[in-house]
């Protein structure tokens, strides 16, 4: 029932979308960036579908690597489901795109592709706990902020599609938290991990990347690393270091952790593609800065 679509973002095995088949047609959980839309089309064809066959796109959150292609699927008839806090940005992505453009500059389009408005009639906001039944499948929205203030994990029976809230993990290596700005919140993230534990799913499906079944170990490691990275940035922040100056030493620190966990250089590349170190520096820096000024 669940098919993992590898969107080949820069390399294989960095960004996944999930295809859920049903008697009424297929749905996607996340769809990846618009830059990998041709690969999404190809991956769907490998399972016998055209883009226009997709009936629903259940977004975990609106970051480009998860939701960037949603407008192109909506154009072909898909309904798009998103948390209320992400809704307006999917309908009018101007601000979302511009703030990303300030970060990515000229690389914006080659990295993420285009971003267009999703018309209101194709867009539905979903509240925490709400269930959309389609083709006999109950897709339940589980509000799980921390990585993003508008993050949903999608529960389908005993499976949980976790977007980024259950972290990134490649080759059964270390589970790590992607911490991009602007709304990382460590205590909220910890609460979301508790919600996931309490649901006791049989499997997690990470956008970066794939199925996880050793869920206790995975979530415990993730929580440990989240705290550890948070403390690392906090100490430097308190010592007056600026975010830019933290990038190189933080990269050395986190690469050391990945190597120590037994990963090869090749395997570590997936971590860097899906979760660039500088992003986590800026996201965690912003978290401590907000806390200090609030
Ligand atoms: Zn992501």
Describe this structure in words.
With 294 residues, this protein is α/β, with parallel strands linked by helices. The chain has helices at residues 37-46, 64-67, 70-75, 84-91, 94-104, 108-112, 186-199, 215-238, 243-260, 265-274, 277-293; strands spanning 2-6, 16-20, 27-29, 56-58, 79-82, 123-125, 131-134, 137-143, 152-156, 159-163, 203-206, 210-212. It has 2 domains: 2-217, 4-Layer Sandwich (Metallo-beta-lactamase, Chain A), CATH 3.60.15.10; 221-293. A 6-stranded mixed beta sheet has the order 1-2-3-4-5-6. Strands 7-8-9-10-11-12 form a 6-stranded mixed beta sheet, with no helix packed on it. The longest helix has 24 residues, at 215-238. The structure holds zinc ion. Zinc ion (ZN) binds next to α2.
Number of helices: 11
Please state the overall shape, judged from the principal axes of the Cα atoms.
globular
Sequence of secondary-structure elements? EEEHEHHEHHHEEEEEHEEHHHH
CATH architecture of the largest domain: 4-Layer Sandwich
Radius of gyration: 18 Å
Biggest β-sheet strands, sense, barrel: 6 strands, mixed
In total, the number of domains comes to 2
Instruction: List low-confidence stretches.
Output: none
Q: What amount of the residues lies in strands? A: 15-25%
What's the arrangement of strands in the largest beta sheet? Answer: 1-2-3-4-5-6
Q: At the fourth CATH level, what is the homologous superfamily of the largest domain?
A: Ribonuclease Z/Hydroxyacylglutathione hydrolase-like
- pLDDT averaged residue by residue: 96
Span of the ends, CA to CA = 46 Å
- Backbone structural class: alpha/beta
Please give the share of residues in helix. 40-55%
Tell me the total number of β-strands.
12
Q: According to CATH, what is the class of the largest domain?
A: Alpha Beta
